[in-house]
Amino acid sequence: MSVWNPDNIKDVAESLGIASLNDDVLQGLSSDIEYRLSQVLEESLKFMRHSKRATLSTQDVAQALRVLDVEPLYGYESIRPLRFGEASIGPGQPIFYVEDEEIDFEKLINAPLPKVPREITLTAHFLAVDGNQPTIPHNPTVADSRSQELVPKGPGANLHSTAINGADNITVKPLVKHLLSKELQLYFSNACSAVFDENTDEYRAAALTSIRTDPGLHQLIPYFVQFIAEKVTHNLKNLFILTQTLQLTSALLDNKNLYLDPYVSSLIPPVLTCLIGRHLGSSTNPLSSFSLRNTAATLLGSICKKYAKSSHTLKPRLARTCLKHFLDPTKPLATNYGGIIGLQAVGGTEAVRVLILPNVKDYETLLREPLEDEGSSKHPEAEAVLTALVSALQTLEDDTFGLRNNVQNGETANLEQQLQEKVGTLLAHRVLEMKRPRFVKALLENS
Fold first, then answer.
1. 127 versus 250: which is more confidently predicted?
2. Which residue, 233, 259, 246, is CA-closest to 195?
3. Cα gap 438→415, rounded to integer Å
4. Does 61 have pLDDT greater than 50?
5. Helix axes 6-15, 23-50, angle to 10 degrees
6. Cβ neighbours of residue 180 under 8 Å, at least 6 residues apart?
7. Quick one: pLDDT at residue 410?
8. 33, 172, 242, 380: which has the highest count of C-beta atoms within 10 A?
9. Separation of alpha carbons 441 and 447, rounded Å
């Protein structure tokens, strides 16, 4: 038996001029109407669900009729809910109709016109430039970003309500999650273990070569930078680890596919520690750390040559740091040695002429006592510092043109006296032993 009332079909048939219908026909038409209505409702519900709504609208029914290739009903496309009124034409026969809102034409005519909508336009802006977010209206301000970082996120964000509910084991996840693929994680662990492998030279060379040439290491740069800083901080007594850390830093800098400008300020402190650190390596051999300091000075010079254009304050800051450790009498001689070779590597001949040469005579007082006492533990370090000073001053000879490399008779004593007044007795004696008059004149003519 059909749910649809056959009397409704008989009334419609009579309105169309069909006087009588067979009962079997009425029953068949009722079943077909019920099927068609259920089909329309099922299609309408599909549109409602895909629209993420819980209320069926007339627009859903109209879309369903279009899908079923049926002409939709017109006049019911309204955003506001329809209000139905009830009218009675007789006993037991109510009629429902849509109540139309009465509109006053005078108010409609005198109402202000709505604003003209803006045209759709597209604008491009930089979200970040070299890792720094520019301060433009499109980007959030620094205060907004900080306030958002402080707000806890996730299911366990409200710690008070979680504690009240009895959940004492609260796990707080980090705000920023940097995802690395399993391949990069495996590469990072294997490369770091191979670089610091003391037993096999081939593994170390292969790992450094891969880091120096691999073009796909952009995501690992911050991890390598942090790893280098931690290795230098916790292994100041292990010269092998410090040396390999410098080799790893050099390999990263040699990789032409990596953009390291934002990380230079983080890479320099470990290199400076290996250059001017107070106590590096074992205390039994005072000269054990000097080769490490030479490597660090060479690496620092290459960093300055490569990134001095992008950071105009890089060279002055490094030169100021090296000069401070060179002239500090409270620092050990090894630190003074690092300051000397660091100045030479960072500033070249100009740094030697302006910063080292005017201070050589005053610095001589620190070297005189350990150099005269050959049995002193500081004697080898003092010799190394004196050699570094002479080596740095030799760059002035190569930078000086038009000087003769011979001396006329009677000029030797005069040159020796002038040289002692210029650089002190110790350095004057060492320079004259080299028997290079051109070097002597270069020192005297560079003021």
1. 250
2. 246
3. 11
4. yes
5. 100
6. 188, 219, 220
7. 47
8. 242
9. 11
pLDDT digits 0-9 by tens, 93-151: 778 777 777 888 888 889 898 888 888 888 887 777 777 777 777 777 766 665 565 55
d(CA 57, CA 41): 11
**The two structure tokens encoding residue 89:** 């034409």
Q: Which two tokens stand for residue 122?
A: 């597209």
pLDDT number for residue 414: 63
Instruction: Give, rounded to a whole angstrom, the gap between the first and last alpha carbons of the chain.
Output: 118
Amino acid at 409: N
Angle at alpha carbon of residue 365, lines to 335 and 343, rounded to 5°: 40
Which two three-digit tokens encode residue 409?
A: 């008779």
- The first and second tokens of residue 30, run together, are 């009722």
Contact yes or no for 6/27 (Cβ under 8 A): yes
> What gap in Å lies between CA 269 and CA 282, rounded to an integer?
21
Between 206 and 395, where is the model more confident? 206
The partner residues of 96 in beta bridges, in order of sequence, read 86
**pLDDT for res 379:** 85
The H or E element spanning position 361 is helix 360-372
Residues 180-206: tens digit of each pLDDT: 788 889 999 999 999 998 888 888 999
- 3-state secondary structure (DSSP) of residue 12: helix
For 346, the token pair is 């960072």
Phi, psi dihedrals of residue 247, rounded to the nearest 5° = -65, -40
Q: Calculate helix-pair angle for 360-372, 425-433, nearest 10 degrees.
A: 80
Number of H helices, E strands in the chain: 19, 2
Q: What is the mean pLDDT of the chain?
A: 80
CA gap 255, 209 in Å, rounded: 10
Cβ-based neighbours of 220, under 8 Å, separated by 6 or more: 180, 184, 187, 188
Measured distance CA(413)–CA(108) in Å, rounded: 112
Coil vs helix vs strand at 341: helix
CA distances from 353 to 210, 236, 414, 421 (A): 40, 33, 22, 16
